[in-house]
Amino acid sequence: MDSSNLPNTFESLGIVMEDGKPKFRLNEPAFSTVNIPLSSNLECDDETSFVVLGQSSLDFINNASLIDYQQIQEKSMAVDYKSIISTLSHEEIESKVAELLQENVKLKEMLAQNNRSMKGQFNKLMSWQEELMKVHENHKRKFSETRNMIRLLQEENMELKTKLTSTESMMNSQSSSEQSSKNLYGKHFAALTEDQMRKQCDSFASSKDLSAGFMIKRVEDEFENTSDVDVKQLLELIKRQDRDLHYRQEIISSLKAQLQIFIEKSFEPIKLQMNDNLNTQNNKNRQQFFDNFLHYNEKLSSIVKCYAAQTSRFTNIQDCLKHCIDVLKTIDIKSSSEVQEEPIKALENCRTQLINEQLQNISERQNLIMAQNQFQKIFSDYNSALHELELLREENGKPIEKLDILEQEREELMEKIKIINDEKEQLNSVKEKLIAEQLSFEQRQAGLEEEKASLNSQSMLYETEMKTLQDNMKVMQKRHDDMLELCTKLKEELQQKNIELNGIKARLAIAKDDAETISILKQQLDLYKSDFEEEQKAKQQLVTEREYLTDQLGKLRDYNQKLLVKINGPNPTSVSQEESDEHLADAFCNSCGLYKMPGHWHGPGFCQPVD
């Protein structure tokens, strides 16, 4: 082949020429596409995020590496033997191996980081669950307390209602007993004759200075002398009514005291706290609201005091009116022929007016009780409305704070977007400059490659290629050893995973009753299972790669032998060359397929056969 056509052939195959030598790199696209996102992920925080290598990333790596191997194989089969010469130095190969090791270390660090972050998130979930259970228990306890409080308030309300109904029934029975006594008195005096009436009047006139008890006894004696059945019943009824009246007066006095205490405690002023977190306009409105609220509380407290004084005054007026009515009754009974008719009529009119005043006082007292109930209802409605307003104010304050936070975040994002756009523009300009420099460099390289083609360079290239092939064989052997060590490490990790799986199964057997822990352990088991499957796939991939490398080494060895036969031809030195080929063929172990390094023993009992 002519030396002038070699550069064109390499350029047509897409191989970069440097110093008249073809230069290409193994797995260059895989490194450029895989390592970049991994490095960016390593800069993340351990507690906020973690990287999960799923099936998609592994498939991408496998596909990329497979495409690179296929491209290399096609190029090696398509080009001439002279085009396979590579200028990769020993330092570049070592740098590639160092990059592979660094990538492996990064992957291990990512796995450890994922495990740590998963444990941290699991602990966070458990702590959040415990806090949620505590809050739930607290809400249940408060709900039970409020329910008990409502039940007690309902019981107190029922007791107050029963007391009010009992007092009303007592008052009604009192008024009915008084009316019945009046009717009996009327019937008795209507049944008496004129002589008996005159005798009673004379006796009342003569004994007007005596005490009321003596007069009652005398009247009772006179009623007994008449031996009338209605009079005896009337006296018994009067005695019984006096006892009932005394007992009811005691009950009314105790109820008055309880009513006074209840009125003082029922209308307590509402106390509120002002928050200074709102803006000026809301503070002004709230200050005005609190001023109105305090004014309303003062008015309400004054109304309560006035109501308490009015109820006490009504009770005093009622007692006074009752005393006046009793006095007028005695005067009516003691009235005789000596008393003039005009004062008697005036007293009767006064008595009727006092009775009407008493009835009016009773109706006004009922109206005041109704007003008290209405005030209490208005007060409770006002309190509930105020509480709802407080809740609405708090709920309306939360979205405003959230909007402020979102606005700040939006501004920060806009600033970041501007910075990213500026950096993108800078990167585009740098990229354009690099492309221009690359084009100029390629043009210079093409001119230099056309000037440096000769047979001497080909012989030198052949010698260097032989050295590089030997170096590549050593590198491949070293990589193969590294792969075996990685396989052993993966086996140990698999054993550890199996031990962890057995431990998890034991924990699952112990914690059968706890459904929540079982679900969490199932999730962990699925994660470990996926990790185990990925490790198996990685192991299988390593085995296939090792087989592929051994095949490639065999092909390279055969190809070297063909090249040597073509170069040397039928000459006496071919025998020595064949012996060297046989020596090269014997350099690999038949059992394990590894290169026989000096100082290493191979064969049955020394090495492990290939699966």
TrEMBL record:
It comes from the Eukaryota. Transmembrane segments: none annotated. Keywords: Coiled coil. The keyword Coiled coil applies. Pfam families: CC2-LZ. Residues 90-170, 403-538 form a coiled coil. InterPro entries: CC2-LZ_dom (IPR032419), Optineurin/NFkB_EssMod (IPR051301). Residues 463-563 form the NF-kappa-B essential modulator NEMO CC2-LZ domain. GO terms for biological process: regulation of canonical NF-kappaB signal transduction. GO terms for molecular function: K63-linked polyubiquitin modification-dependent protein binding. One of its GO terms (cellular component) is nucleus. This is NF-kappa-B essential modulator NEMO CC2-LZ domain-containing protein. It comes from Microctonus aethiopoides.
